[in-house]
Amino acid sequence: VLLAIGRDACTRNIGLQTIGVKINEKNGKVPVSDEEQTNVPYVYAIGDILDGKLELTPVAIQAGRLLAQRLYGGSSRKCDYINVPTTVFTPLEYGCCGFPEEKAIDVYGKQNLEVYHSLFWPLEWTVPGRDNNTCYAKIICNKQDNNRVIGLHILGPNAGEVTQGFAAAIKCGLTKELLDETIGIHPTCAEVFTTMDITKSSGQDITQKGC
Length: 211
Description:
The chain is an alpha+beta fold. It folds into 2 domains: 16-73, 3-Layer(bba) Sandwich (FAD/NAD(P)-binding domain), CATH 3.50.50; 85-202, FAD/NAD-linked reductase, C-terminal dimerisation domain (Enolase-like, domain 1), CATH 3.30.390. Helix content is 22%, strand content 15%. It has helices at 16-19, 57-72, 101-108, 159-171, 176-181; strands at 86-88, 94-98, 113-120, 135-142, 148-155. Strands 1-2-5-4-3 form a 5-stranded antiparallel sheet. A hairpin with a 5-residue loop joins β4 and β5. The longest helix has 16 residues, at 57-72. It starts with 15 loop residues before the first helix and ends in a 30-residue tail after the last helix. Pfam families: Pyr_redox_2 (PF07992), Pyr_redox_dim (PF02852). One of its GO terms (biological process) is cellular response to oxidative stress. Belongs to the class-I pyridine nucleotide-disulfide oxidoreductase family. Residues 84-196 form the Pyridine nucleotide-disulphide oxidoreductase dimerisation domain. Its cofactor is FAD.
């Protein structure tokens, strides 16, 4: 990694102070309501300049479309900033959708969550004999809502492709029971989500002996 410095919100010199739009003085980003409305009712903001929101191009596009539909098309649909699939395209990819575990605990309380996790061994790693306990998968379930999946995380080959598919299921209200009832495609990395039975709270060993 040569540089990992984020983005600069260039909002200080575009005249926002003239019309009274508030910004976060620490980072220049704009606080908004859940409808992307600033503190000035007729001014809206979307995309990377939003305070506390994801800096992702597809998120900005979706938010912009939904904002236009609300303003001019009579829609009431808001952008979902939680169930956003994203991937870090490092040599071993990391993908996620929904809450990270720490945030889920803050929002729902640790006692209301069940976390399932597993290490796994991709088929393509068996021939060269790569470490069979490097890849990792985890789901976070809300016990108070039928064990609905509120967070999904995977570290392994093609994590982006895997995450994109499960993101649609999460938007549809995916539960642990539905995952358990889903027949996995063997041998794929995504299959691990259909066979998880070890909870983090149990402290049981999650290392794998084979593919």
